[in-house]
Amino acid sequence: MKTPRAAAFAGIVFAVVILVAFAILLQAIQPRAGDTGAWARDKASAVNFALQLIPVAGVAFLWFIGVLRDRLGPDEDKLFATVFLGSGVLFVGLLFVAAAATSAIVFAAQEPGFLAGATFRLARSLAFDLTSVYAMKMASVFMFTASSLIVRTGFTSRWTAALGYGLGLLVLLFSQSAPLTLFLFPLWVLTVSLTILWEQWRDAEPRAAAREPASPPLAPEA
Fold first, then answer.
1. How far apart (Å, rounded) are the C-alpha atoms in residues 201 and 215?
2. Residue 174 CB: number of other CB atoms within 10 A?
3. Cα(153)–Cα(190) distance, rounded to whole angstroms?
4. Residue 102, SS3?
5. What is the pLDDT of residues 42-94, one digit of tens each?
6. 212 vs 214: CA distance, rounded Å
7. Among 8, 47, 56, 169, which lies 20 to 30 A Cα-Cα from 41?
8. Rounded Cα–Cα distance for residues 171 and 216 (Å)
9. Cα separation, 17 vs 190, whole angstroms
10. pTM for the whole structure
């Protein structure tokens, strides 16, 4: 599979899988202020299923980063490339740690008295802050740098860069107070990936037409 198409498919896999995982988790887990932890027992199966999706999404996202860097090649700016790669890797790492902390809560919730103690509140706060504060801030930095690379190199439509700047600002400012901002980053990655696929398909049609052999000349009549 050629590089732009591989990046697009990896981005689509990441976006779809992480959107499903976030939707399940937000439906199951209450906001932090009123969280009693009942979800860790009553909705343990759904939460565990969502947590199992996160490593799949993380691997797809790392593939998305790698293929995009290969696509940029010598056009990649070292400053932007360093922040682009670093923020993406940090996002995945923080998301994995938050998922592990949430999984530990589900496991420990089977012990009597755990949900009423300080240990649950500590673990819950850790998982919440790792996701909504640190991981999502890194996601906003990734959106800013990726959008800047789009503007500088034009490897896809520049309107996706404008969208990335706007959504990245919303994530940066409101990820801790508005849980629905979790969906903005994967939706942007999905938009960029679909745009790359569309451009590949659109550009392939003229090339395919140019490669078609011309019709042979008609034989002269006897």
1. 25
2. 15
3. 20
4. helix
5. 899 999 999 999 999 999 999 999 888 877 767 667 788 889 899 999 999 99
6. 6
7. 56
8. 60
9. 11
10. 0.85
